[in-house]
Amino acid sequence: MKKIVYSPGEPSGIGPDLIIQLCKTPFWEKINVPVICIADPRLIKERAKSLKKNIKIELIQDIKESHKNISGTIQVVCIAKCSNTNFGKLYKSNAMYVLKNLDYGINEALNRENVALVTGPISKENVISVKKDFSGHTEHIQKLTKSNDVLMLLGSSLLKVAIATTHIPLKKVSKAITKKLIINKVTILNNELKSKFNIKTPRIKLLGLNPHAGEGGKIGTEEKDILIPAVKELKKKKINVSMPLSADTAFSKKLLKETDAYLGMYHDQVLPVIKTLSFGSSINITLGVPIIRTSVDHGVALDIAGSGKADTSSLKEALSTAKKIL
After folding, report:
1. What is the pLDDT of residue 321?
2. CA–CA distance, 49 with 300 (Å, rounded to integer)
3. 5/100 same-domain check
4. CA separation for the pair 234, 240 (Å, rounded)
5. In this structure, what DSSP letter does residue 114 have?
6. From residue 82, how far is each of 35, 74, 176, 212, 230 by CA, in Å?
7. How many domains in the chain?
8. Residues 247, 197 share a domain
9. CB–CB of 185/242 below 8 Å?
């Protein structure tokens, strides 16, 4: 039986709220696969009280004990105790709790068949307070799964965007862009669009790094020296990838219809586009790793935690996608 483990992420944010709210909706039983929440049951119980949601917590010792979802019931595996269950403010004492839950979810997805991981939002700021080299879910999953490379993809019904570099300062991006990196990222994207999304011949648009894709070397030479040679090599492998496009025109209605996925050079080159078009209904998918991992497309939202105002749309999409590609 397919199973999904859910790591709610930062306990002070809306990660716990989302699953509590969702378990009281028709979706909870319609998804028709067990969803197991990795959390301290005390946190879930107290948050449900704040949300004025009457739920039942079923504590299980192993996800093997899980069963199909029952409306109003959350199956919970407790891996660690949450030091501070208050919401709306970050507590450094909870950072290790977040990491332990995440690591358990990664290992369950890695070591068990038909298990996917869905993650709620984390505060990188808080996790970094106890783990200095932490830069995000994507890189952490790559490390724990011992994967050679990894690719961050955000997808919605309107478009899919992937990123060649993820959580690094903008001043370091140009040095990080190499021919090998582009070839690896496009290859992962092409392969995973086939295997996870059943796209037989993916159409990939590559964005340039510089304004106007460098204008033939007049505004930067990365396109001429790195990106174009990488594309030529990829085309020899029969991968349908474009020459570098200027990012300011790459998302026109015409090009959107002709594209299965975009590969951008850096985080804020492509994420504002998908979040403008699909915020709350898009999801984050980790590609290039031997597990299925999807995630919500938003942050911890400390300001609305415990209020009942959290939108569950992205979590619903993340759960549905995880089930579909398992």
Report:
1. 95
2. 19
3. yes
4. 8
5. T
6. 20, 17, 38, 49, 47
7. 2
8. yes
9. no
- Distance CA(245)–CA(210), nearest Å, equals 10
**Contact present, 104 and 282 (Cβ < 8 Å):** no
Q: Say whether both 160 and 202 belong to one domain.
A: yes
CA distance 254 to 27: 35
Residues 243/234, Cβ–Cβ less than 8 Å: no
Question: Is the same domain home to 156 and 143?
Answer: no
pLDDT score at 98: 97
The two tokens of residue 147 are 């994967």
Question: CB count, 10 Å around CB of 125?
Answer: 12
- Note whether 53 and 105 are within 8 A (CB): no
- Residue 15 lies in domain: 1-147+289-326
Are both 229 and 293 inside the same structural domain? no
Instruction: Report the share of the chain in percent with pLDDT over 90.
Output: 96
Q: What is the DSSP letter of 224?
A: I
Domain harbouring 304, CATH code: 3.40.718.10
Cα separation, 162 vs 121, in Å, equals 19
* 102 contacts: CB under 8 Å, gap ≥ 6: 7, 9, 119, 122, 137, 140
Cα separation of the two ends of the chain: 10
Write out the H or E segment, with its range, that includes residue 271. helix 267-278
pTM above 0.90? Answer: yes
| Alpha carbon distance 252, 174 (integer Å) | 25
Q: From residue 89, give the alpha-carbon distance in Å to each of 14, 50, 136.
A: 11, 15, 20
Residue by residue, DSSP assigns 164-208 as SS-SS-GGGHHHH--HHHHHHHHHHHHHHHHHHH--SS--EEEBP
**Identity at 58, one-letter amino acid code:** E
Q: Which residues of the chain have pLDDT under 50?
A: none
Q: Are 226 and 304 part of one and the same domain?
A: no
